[in-house]
Design a protein that fits this description.
Layout lengths: L2 H25 L12 H9 L6 H4 L5 H16 L5 H9 L4 H7 L16 H22 L1 E5 L13 E6 L42 H4 L18 E5 L26 E8 L4 E5 L2 E4 L2 E2 L10 E7 L7 H7 L4 E6 L5 E7 L1 H8 L4 E6 L25 E5 L6 E3 L5 H11 L4 E4 L2 E4 L2 E3 L1 E3 L4 E5 L9 H4 L2 E2 L3 E13 L4 E2 L6 E2 L9 H16 L8
Antiparallel strand pairs: 1-2, 2-20, 3-4, 3-20, 4-18, 5-6, 5-12, 6-7, 8-10, 8-11, 9-10, 13-17, 14-15, 15-16, 18-19, 20-21, 20-22
Helix pairs in contact: 1-6, 4-5, 4-7
Amino acid sequence: MSFTGWFILFLIIQLIHFLGTWKLYVKAGRKAWEAAVPIYNAIVLLGIVKRPKWWVILLFVPTVNLIMFPVLWIETCRSFGFKSTKDSILAIVTLGFYIFYISYFNTPQYDEKRKLKAPSRAGEWVSSIAFAIVAATIVHNYFIRPYVIPSSSLEKTLLVGDYLFVSKFHYGSRVPMTTVSLPMIHDSIPGLGTKSYVFSDDYKNRKTSFINKLQLPYMRLPGLKKIKRNDIVVFGQPADTLRNMNILTSDRNYYKPIDKKTNLVKRCVGVAGDSLEIKDGYIYINGERTKLPKSAKPQWNHIMYAKKGQNLSLGVVKKRYNVREGQRISDQNGNDCLFLTMTDDEAAALRKNPSVEKVEKMNIPKGQYNKDIFPHNPKYPWSVDNFGPIYIPKKGATVALNAESIPFYKRIIQEYEKNELTYFGDDVYINGKKANSYTFKQDYYWMMGDNRQNSLDARAWGYVPFDHVIGTPVMVWFSYDKDTGKIRWDRMFTTVTNGETKSYFWFGVIAAIGILLFVFMPKKKKAN
């Protein structure tokens, strides 16, 4: 929905509010017109129900307001004598229209001396939980959110089973776009597997669906910094759909809202405006081989052959050479060997082992078309190890459009920047008009995993738009190795940076104990 549409909806809500509450304003000693003035009416109502006036801010915070509106409905009912559990339930299930019943079909009396304390122990718990959810939702949406590493894409910087705190404010917090959704739950309800938000995924009707029109326009708060080359970034996967997140070659539209796409974490190896090429597994930016930070440990697949009569145990090799991924296999000739994922330094050290015949780095050359490799066009028969060169679009930059370039930019024009696109050879039409060039509306980035041949990344689905960016990891607060069933104590409360990792383990332990004591320690009762 456009800003104009939202403004009209806002005015309709204000009219409903006025019709439902003006009598109650008068009962409370206020003027009827005060119920009709947007924003001011909310401030006045908060005074009537004896709640802090700054709560008015929470009424305009997406997702948080879904909690605050029911709270305000209940508080209004209680302030005029309707305090029972039944009244509270009716206020919620009728979406606040129960207040019309109170105003027009009853003789409510304003309880000026109403006690704010909940009438029952259960009520106290409900109030406490509601405002804990409000506070947590604000932190989750605009400051810090937890995230778990599900795959080995960024081994050895981030490990499978690392639990992260991801900063949203570094690159600017993104305002939630899906307005009707459960707070603090991403795309599906745990244990149920159903959507945690309301959105029509019907391709034919999704643009005209009323509930989809309740989507907020993309907005972002100012950030502390811009994305830099080699930053680790959390983002929504561009190719993600509700039905199949790996459909990469289809031209059809995709169904998930931007803020509900599956979250991924990769390294940003190329920023907007860069020219990128991959040669034999190594990344070149603007013609120069990129220099990775100390914390980055890029890995490739290798085949290790032992000398005749020698038998190197997989477990010994993994432990001695710090190899995290590997298995014993037979090559195409039936020879027994080890398939290992290692850094260049680990492979070099393994080659020096007197029991090793050779260690071959697996490298896929250009020349054989792979439909799974971006831009999914036979004109560009690239591989994960030999790819490009490509241009990474920058906001305000203009590129020529023709049969050669359209495979790279069609998804940007059509999906990310919301244009109607048709093309026949060199003839390109955007929104019904012939175009020989296109100017980008936002920045794009190239995200890849350090585990170079075991990562589903930009080489499969292309550019990541800035509006898909969520934030950057700042700390590992917990780490669990599911293979061994052990907690990685040495990784807990360690920073995630491009420089030297720092541990704040004892600080984290003391802080956790302090929070637990604050929450669960019995409170002293005040004397009457």
